[in-house]
Structure formats: C-alpha cells, structure tokens
Amino acid sequence: MIKTIADTFAKSFVIAVVICAIQALFGISFVREFMQDNLLNILVTLMAINTATIAVILSKMYEISREHQKKVNEIFGATKSQMLLSIREQIALIGSGLILSILSKKIDWSWNPTIINISLEILLLTVFIYALFILYDTAKAVLEFYQ
Questions:
Q1: Are the C-beta atoms of residues 44 and 134 closer than 8 Å to each other?
Q2: In which region does residue 117 sit, left (phi positive, over 0), alpha (psi from -120 to 50) or beta (all else)?
Q3: In this predicted structure, what is the pLDDT of residue 15?
Q4: What pLDDT band is residue 82 in, cutting at 50, 70 and 90?
Q5: 112/16 Cα distance (integer angstroms)
Q6: Which residue from 7, 59, 69, 79 lies 20 to 30 Å from 118 (Cα-Cα)?
Q7: CA–CA separation, 25 vs 60, rounded Å?
Q8: If phi over 0 gives left and psi between -120 and 50 gives alpha, with beta otherwise, what is residue 104?
C-alpha cells in the first residue's frame, strides 16, 4: 500500500517537473495560475466522480455476493479496502491542495523566493496529476470489473 502511494507520488512528481520545465522554456506561468484558481474545485469534482463510480461498483459487488450467498467482505474485502484507500488519498490531496494553494498565494518569500515558488508550482501540479492517476485507476477497475 505505501509502496503504491510512493510510486504514484513519484510518477506524478516527475511528470509535474517535466511540465514545469517545458513551461519555463516557453516563459509562461499558466500552471501556477490555473492551479491556484482551479485545483480545489477540480479535486472535489474528481472525488465526486470517483465516489459515484465506487457506488456503482459496490452495488454490483453486493449483487454478486447475494448471488453467491456470501458477505461482500468475504468475496471483495481487498477491493473494498482499495476503494477506501482511494477515498482517503483524495481527502489527503484536497487537504494538501488547500495548504499548497494558500502558500502559493504568498508572493514575497524572504528566503529564495524563486526556489520556493517553483517548488510550490511543482507540488500543486503533482497533487493534480496524482488525482488523475486515482481517477484512471478507478476507471480501469470499472472496466476490469465488468469484463
């Protein structure tokens, strides 16, 4: 579980660094402005989509467990724990996004403002990309579940 979270964070971070580097090459600041204005709304929306999708999957799991006359936890215990982990991750992302958004609004850092601002931009984008990985995993699970 922790390894999966660390892997997803590492992938998200690397992608964020690449995107920020490309942005720096072009001399624009789209990512920071977009993330400051929209990140929390996007994260809450992605969590709502994920929660609705999980509800559909849970209803199908309940239906299957009734057909086999077993409890959902007996058949799908690991699946349910992964769903719960997904929701916990998203809540943590919303909290992280809120803190990073607040910090990124401060412009006049006294110690190395350029490094701090670039770091905040990368971390904001990392949170967003991590949330997209969660959405991707949920969609993949739905497709696999109904095959």
A1: no
A2: alpha
A3: 97
A4: confident
A5: 21
A6: 7
A7: 48
A8: alpha
Count of Cβ atoms closer than 10 Å to residue 135 Cβ: 18
Q: What percent of the chain has pLDDT over 90?
A: 37
Mean pLDDT for 21-32 is 87
* Helices marked H in the chain: 2-26, 30-67, 72-105, 113-145
CA-CA distance, 95 to 100, in Å (whole number)?
9
Rounded-to-integer distance, Cα 16 and Cα 125, Å: 6
DSSP code string of 78-114: HHHHHHHHHHHHHHHHHHHHHHHHHHHH----SS-HH
